[in-house]
Predict the structure of Alpha-1,2-mannosidase.
Amino acid sequence: MRPASLVTLALAMAACSGSEPTPPAEEPGPEPSDACYAPPTGDDTARVEATAPLIRYVDPFIGTGGVGFGVGSAFPGPQRPFGMVRPGPDTTGSKSAISFAHCSGYAYDDPYIYGFSQTRMHGTGIVDYGSVGLMPTLGMTPEKTTEEGRRIAFDKAEEHASPGSYEVTLEDGIRVEITASERVAFYRTTFPQESGTGGASEATILLDIGHALPNVEVVAGQVDVDPVTHQITGSATISGGYSSRFGGMPVYFAARFSRPFARHGVFQGGTLAEDELSRTGGDVGAWVGFDTTTDAEVGVALAISFVDVAHAQMNLDAEAPGVDFDAARAATEAAWEEALSRVQLVARSERDVEIAYTALYHTLLMPTLATDVDGSYRGLDAQVHTADGFAYYTDFSLWDTYRTLHPWLSLVYPEVQRDMLRSMTAMAVESGAPPQWPLGIGETGGMVGDSAAIVFADSWARGVRDVDFEAAYAVLKASATTDLPKGGRDHVAEYMEKGYIGIESGGSSGSSTLEYALDDFALAMLAEVLGETADAEAFRARSGNWRHLWDAESQFLVGRHADGSFASGDDPEMWQDYWAEGTTWHYTWFVPHDAEGLADVMGGRDALLARLDDYFAMSTCQIAGKLLPKPYYWHSNEPVLFVPWLYGELDDAARASTWARWALASEYGDGPDGLPGNDDGGTMSAWWLFTASGIFPRMATSEYLIGAPVLPEVTLKLPGGDFTITTKGPAHGVPVAATLNGARLPRPRFAHEQIAAGGALEIELSGEARAWE
């Protein structure tokens, strides 16, 4: 048989010419230069082995830039793995900061910094947090109480970041270094000593309680200065894109300075009140001054809590009894080295090593630790609870992360995933509904679906236990079968009666229907392992509800009206109201749990594969770049992430690997625009790690599909033993066979239980596609 790449290139040629794709002739296909997509080439023999320290390969600036829908929303500031505090620079342009480009507070090309805030999210497309702005400056004037009045240019050549550390030099000569423990941000500020600067009257650090990210409002605040203990404490309640949905997110803080104050004051609005100690309101702050004529350095340790100021003080005392910046940085770098060492790899270039470990780093940033040092946390019911024997996390972007991030954590960091499941169980029990998109102490209801069901089922299947699955299942079942007083699935009665949600019930009705069908598949699996046989049968039947959206006339999955008629006249290349962030072309494939059923309605396996070929051929000829959404394969958003692997669901590993590698090559890089778009809490980075390793998780099952690794060797340090993936054959070939622990795999897939105790997977690659051996 001819190489799979020639088949796909012939289809791409047809798509580019505007004609209908047709099966390729038997003669040799077109030269790669004549088509929209050329398969990768390169040195098959190159090997670059990653060696300790692994943190040197991480570039936190990857994903901090991009334009339009290609904005990665990463940030370069330091944090511990999944840490509560995320200190870092908040930047702006010459006029203002466009909110969508500053969801993390930072945009790589910005020329100005206007403060260093302590909270943010990683890789999201929603603007929130940015609490408690710290800013070192020379002198104090009313203008500096505003972001515009204190913004300052910085030297890009003097800006550096690595896991656990960030540093920058501002235009006025002030050097800022930042590190972090789990709950405390550490700052070391070095003031300039040239004539006319520094000294007792100019070296100043201000804390702005009214600071927040663009389009985020601070609705309440408090600041208190204690010159005796040289501390500042207080709180800020922010109301942002998501936190506004539950009344605002309070962040409490306690900051200790390394030296006594030479002067101090508070402000409200633009009014300074020197020597005063307290202010209340959303526009308040404080400043303190230091005599730096003989000692240029000032250290700050700033702890936060989501419970109250007393717990912020407790966190500060536990993690920063002194303001020892170097010790804190060393401990954080050690924590990152330990976390990164779970993955040992060999790549074919230094560039791939850097992309790989940066992707791994990005998967370990969010969700967010919300437990104080004594185990206290504020739950979604607004009450204070104690996490007994686990760490409580929040900021779950579940509609995104169920697809790749949580399966990755279950595989490589199961002890962390266990605590995340325990956190989600606590949220469900305490609030009476499964978490959907919890941010901080509140539920936002963001996106669609009942994604927690998939996370629980998938985690169980991948061996994460020691969780109260019965308690979680009880709430998940209630959400799937009843209208809960608050939270839970939307339009449950309609979905149960009709098997779908009608267009008249509101936006994203089609996406909700497809997501609920997948959720029901997950619930059937959970019910079965929990011994709820009748429930399992009922949910298994409901998992076929996606079929109610199949329009045999148009041959698409489309939205459906309450009277049973299908939407008509809609362009499948355009976003529709009944889809969540996507086109009909995106969602027609969204049946990840029932590929054989989808093949059945499309006319059989060969028909589905041929249509997938057409889809990807057209996808290669879309407008290049990431600025705008794409009508066909659009890797910048979640609904299509599994589509290259849909081939693998039908045992065609060759074409699965062809298009998965195409996405790797075209969507990821090693620059500020090196992510496909929002990383969505590590979702896109986890996709890279799975795909580059040559495996991909089947949702809510214990299985992994096999593809073609771009990394010639990967070793995952699993609790039960090392799991190593290697290849033989041409590096840019397609998979045709594989052995696991020396035994041939009859299909291009394997189960988690086969590798739980470690093992060796060898994938055989060939220059020509052929039936799986």
Confidence is low (pLDDT under 50) at residues 1-35.
